[in-house]
Description:
The chain is α/β, with parallel strands linked by helices. The protein has 2 domains: about 10-20 and about 270-390, Aspartate Aminotransferase, domain 1, CATH 3.90.1150.10; about 20-265, Aspartate Aminotransferase, domain 2, CATH 3.40.640. The protein is built from 13 helices and 14 strands. The chain has helices spanning about 20-30, 40-55, 70-80, 95-105, 120-130, 155-165, 215-225, 235-240, 250-265, 270-290, 315-330, 355-370, 380-385; strands at about 10-15, 60-65, 85-90, 110, 135-145, 145, 150, 170-175, 195, 210-215, 295, 305-310, 330-335, 345. The strands form 3 sheets. A 7-stranded mixed β-sheet has the order 2-10-9-8-5-3-4, with helices on both faces. A hairpin with an 8-residue loop joins strand 13 (about 330-335) and strand 14 (about 345). Helix 11 packs across helix 12 (about 355-370) and helix 12 packs antiparallel against helix 13 (about 380-385). Bound molecules: pyridoxal-5'-phosphate. The site of pyridoxal-5'-phosphate (PLP) has 12 residues, from helix 3. Pyridoxal-5'-phosphate (PLP) binds near residues 69, 143 and 174.
Amino acid sequence: xxxxxxxxxxVLQIPGPSPIPERVLRAIDMPVIDxxxxxxxxxxxxxxxxxxxxxxxxxxxxxxxxxxxxxxxxAIVNVLSPGDKVLMVETGHFAAxxxxxxxxxxxxxxxxxxxxxxxxxxAAIEEKLREDSRHAIKxxxxxxxxxxxxxxxxxxxxxxxxxxxxxxxxxxxxTISSLGSADYRHDEWGVDVTVSGSQxxxxxxxxxxxxxxxxxxxxxxxxxxxxxxxxxxQDMLKSNATGYFPYTPATNLLYGLRAAIDMLLEEGxxxxxxxxxxxxxxxxxxxxxxxxxxxxxxxxxxxxxLTAVLMPPGHDADRxxxxxxxxxxxxxxxxxxxLAGKAFRxxxxxxxxxxxxxxxxxxVEMALxxxxxxxxxxxxxxxxxxxxxxxxx
Length: 393
Ligand SMILES: *Cc1c(COP(=O)(O)O)cnc(C)c1O
């Protein structure tokens, strides 16, 4: 079957992978160089140094040729051993997947249950840690931005809860969909391992996985004699010291990463975060005007990265997304696992601005009508009111 050509660009409004800016595409479009040659060292050092500013850390950041899932595994195998106990929070699908991975590594996971409609509760974490007077819990593992539900967790408050409980556990945080889109401070918030990936807020293709570490995490890894090889931090750090890698790095993605870091710093991280908040607020204004329900129930936990919307009862979200794709060449995120068919997700991260968001919300509004989904018109108009610079006449 041949695919019909559609004029214009596909509107990729899923919460990652996110659209790749022209400048990043151009940066990647380079001949391959010798990853052991002199030219590579400069690229290696520029990216290994530059990415620290995005994580806001003075400590090393490890860059793997992997998806985010690989970086999840790297965090687990370096600081934990089979039989270790950890505390995790059920914020949604991605928290459940990280837990499933930990279980495969024979980690003993205490999973604080959740309804997938809010971020992690620092109070619940504190209570669990206070009960653990013998300090059996080796790590607290939290997803910062839960991409399946559109809720974000307050990592600074999680750190404070751990400190208040005077518990020595390591803090491991998944920022795969929040790094470069939402305020994040690895050092200041006392995070021990921050996991991330390239294809969401960093606006790159998939294929780079990150571990930002703390001195405490490095010490835990040195003491950990559980088997590991590809993900071992020590081999990586030894080579990284001179700007090189122990095995072939994703060289062309590093060209892209260098450009993406430049772009984020030129815009200013605070401006980048404010833009994401503005676009998220406009999206919620549209959803409210349509009369649809947000999946996230706690306003303090609204994600700046994506907005998950519940489909009106009796209407299938996947059918709606199919109509949107066929009629307007636009993609939205699907509801994941227990939300399949019940919710859709609007990504507003990375290379997204006011006018690209308005175009996407226009697609949603038209497709809601086309799908016969009960809603009020006026979502786009509501978003315009929140985004325009002038007061209404
Ligand atoms: C996308 C995502 C992952 C999975 O990353 P992959 O690159 O697909 O392996 C994990 N956690 C969160 C929060 C994500 O958004």
